[in-house]
Specification:
Order of helices and strands: EHEHEEEEEHEHEEHE
Number of strands: 11
CATH topology: Deoxyribonuclease I, Chain A
Mean pLDDT: 94
CATH architecture: 4-Layer Sandwich
Helix content: 10-25%
Structural class: alpha+beta
Shape: globular
Number of helices: 5
Strand order of the largest sheet: 3-4-2-1-11-10
CATH class: Alpha Beta
Radius of gyration: 16 Å
Largest sheet: 6 strands, mixed
Length: 232
């Protein structure tokens, strides 16, 4: 990571269950090693905090990163939801509940990071499956963005929107203009851009690509989305 550049990845790891039906933390760790991102936003992370086989701590150790959990469901010792892995200093963490009654619980991790003299806000989330659900969740997300007081504002995660200009995301497009997309799902033959990384200012997004390797195509049902960010 240079003074002005860093790499951000977003990946729905599907509980580390691959397209072959095999659960493998080590396989997901190997894919993250291929990407070598400074920040990784994860969705569908199933962890058991305090246990040796905890998925989030395993991936954090494998990538030499700090783990920030954003669980949306807790059952006994098991936690499930969003997470963040970062090698950058974390200044603040806010967890927002954007769940809709009667639907699967959803949340957003709202994190302040520091890169040199730059203040960065990153919101990481996983939106719901129904359009009406996503519209309500976007309404909850929009007030979180404080671009006027940040050098860079980022939104990353699995937005679950099948249509590039789908109505649920229109308010976000006003904040993140000229938002590029890449097909990331399903991993073996990607047809839909369900996973997104957006930046404001948009010019800071110097490269956006899906990470396609033999291992990434089977490690999860989503391909990782990778962005190279420049603050120059």
């Amino acid at each position: 990571m240079s003074a002005a550049r860093f790499r951000l990845a977003s990946w729905n790891i599907h509980r580390c269950i691959g397209s072959d039906g095999v659960m493998s933390h080590s396989r997901c760790a190997q894919v993250l090693g291929e990407i070598d991102a400074d920040i990784v936003v994860l969705q569908e992370v199933e962890s058991t905090p305090g246990r040796a086989d905890d998925a989030l701590e395993y991936l954090a150790a494998a990538t030499a990163s700090r783990a920030v959990a954003g669980a949306t469901m807790v059952s006994g010792d098991s936690h499930y939801g969003n997470a963040l892995l970062t090698r950058m200093p974390v200044e603040a963490v806010r967890r927002h509940d954007i769940s809709i009654a009667g639907r699967e619980p959803r949340g957003a991790l709202d994190v302040d990071l520091r890169l040199g003299g730059a203040s960065i806000q990153l919101v990481a989330t996983h939106l719901g499956l129904r359009p009406s659900e996503r519209r309500a969740q976007v309404e909850a997300l929009v007030p979180l963005f404080r671009e006027e007081s940040r050098s860079l504002v980022l939104l990353a995660g699995d937005l679950n929107e099948w249509f590039l200009w789908g109505r649920p995301l229109r308010r976000l497009h006003r904040i993140f203009s000229d938002t590029p997309h890449r097909r990331s799902w399903p991993a073996r033959l990607p047809l839909f851009a369900l996973d997104r990384i957006w930046a404001n200012p948009g010019r800071s997004l110097s490269r956006l690509a899906v990470h396609q390797t033999p291992l990434s195509r089977i490690a999860s049902d989503h391909l990782p989305l990778v962005a190279d960010i420049s603050l120059e």
